[in-house]
Amino acid sequence: MYYNKALFQAAGIASPPTTWSELVADGKKLTHGSQYGLAVEGASIPENIHNVFILSKQMGGSFFDSAGNPTFTTPQNVAAVQQWVNFMGTDHIVNPGDAEYDQNQSLSDFAKGKDAMIMWQAAGTALQADGMAKDAYGTAPVPVESGTPSSSNPDSMVAGINMAVFKDSKNQAAALKFVNFMTSQAESINRNGEYGSIPPLTAALQASPAANQEQTVLRNVLSSSAEAMPQVAKESQFETEVGTAVKNLMADAASGKPVSAATVKAQLATAQQSMNG
Amino acid sequence: MTVGIHRDAPPAGSDAGRGRTSAPQTRSSRFLRRIRKGGLPYLFLLPALLLELLVHFIPMAFGILISFKQLTLFFIRNWTGAPWAGWANYRVALNFHEAVGSALLHSFLVTCSFTVLAVGLSWLFGTTAAILTQDTFRGRGTLRTIFLTPFALPVYASVIIWSFMFQYNNGLVNELLHNVLGITSRPSFWLIGHNSFFALVIISIWRNWPFAFLCVMAGLQGIPRDLYEASAIDGASIWQQIRKITMPSLRSVNQVLILVLFLWTFNDFTTPFVLFGTSAPSPADVISIHIYNASFINWNFGEGSAMSVLMLIFLLLVTAAYLIGTSRRRNNA
After folding, report:
1. Chain B residues whose beta carbon lies within 8 Å of the beta carbon of residue A95
2. Domain range for residue B26?
3. Could you tell me the strand order of the sheet in which A2-4 lies?
4. Closest chain A CA to residue B302
5. Do A251 and B77 touch (CB under 8 A)?
6. Cα separation of A212 and A215, whole Å?
7. pLDDT digit string (tens) for A218-245?
8. ipTM greater than 0.90, yes or no?
9. Is residue B74 part of a domain?
């Protein structure tokens, strides 16, 4: 999570929130006039799904059972989606306009000081590109329900993109060479230096020490309290279906419609049916 | 291709010439004689026909074939190895009690209302503008050119600009409606929620009415001025002139125009895709985006193809009914 130091200071908040109730309370203090406490990328499927996944994990929920079958409508998942959407709907700490963002507009709003907090991974370089000074923002772990973040009380998620070489690829040797290059230590350090993210290779991680406070926080979270996204074959479909459901609910919240547990459950049930269909 | 057949033709032709007097005509010689008698133009058309097959019918046949396969992400490497699904994809798509089917039905109804509104209003605006600019006046050429610009702009660029204008926080539309004119009590959402449907209709009309304008304008050139003059002498009002002279004379233009607009609008992919991205808000979930989602986001090409085939059948039926209906009326008239 990234927070705007000057806005926190102006609101008299000494340190970033560590629980969700603190986040909502701080968010309310930070919301006034055209300024809002929290920025979200409301129409973005990946951002919605990542946050809902973490919230559900913190409540002990899961979107798939051990056999890999979808369990979208469990009380924990419903509560997680409702909590996420209601930061805008009932807590009013998110600008309703965020509900239509899907091209990283929330990052640029945060960088411009329109919002005080944003939950994002490795946003530093993007924020600086949007003109925010390096020392204007602080980095903190994403809040949890209660207690401290740990592997059983995760506050972040790990996801990635697979690289695959087709069995009947014409240039298999070259393709494999490319995969080797992309996953090599040197390239890993190089690329992650460029984007400000964390090298996935342990050796690369050790070879390139954290460059700043942001990096230190991100590395700690990754090594101690991040949970992997569901490792099922239909993962991409899960992201699309549930992400779209959350996006629609976010649109409801933005236009002032109440988002009840029943509404959320109905949307998640439709998403689950589409997974099986 | 033509050359090869052409080279074969002359000797065969002389055979046929002989056949007239002596030998019994073989099937091939009769065929070749027919070509010689007047079929040559068809031979010249053959390459075009083959290309048409290649470009249009083979992909269509492929699509139909895939719709009977269970082609999911597990089989895209070697799609011929995908198991046959029989009618399963169609059953899923047409089972309106389940999520996929009911979503498809919803999307179909959205597309129908979107098409009717967008085509109707595009036609109305186009025709009105064409009739109003029928008489010469200063600046008519300039005005006509301005009218045609939306049609000349690249779709992507114009839709992106519209999407900026429809933004909630700092879009031009909300700025005008809410801040300047004060019509709405609070800013409205245009890209999500119910208004997204109207945003799509507005952009579609904006893009398509110049085409209607162009066609009707061309059609109006063919109506003799004497008709208007004669009717004016008989005391016909402008409204009567439009109803009794202009509209009947435009019938054949309108027949084609409305059909083309219908097919374009119903199938339009670029506008909703640029406006909403891969997941359109449910009130504006038009069928082209819906099928794209089934195919490329959920990686279920079988189901996506089955939906496409259903849409194709629907469009074929509507087009056939429309053409038969409109031609019969014209013959009776």
Report:
1. 169
2. 2-66
3. A36-39, A115-118, A2-4, A137-139
4. A277
5. no
6. 5
7. 988 988 999 999 988 888 889 988 998 9
8. no
9. no
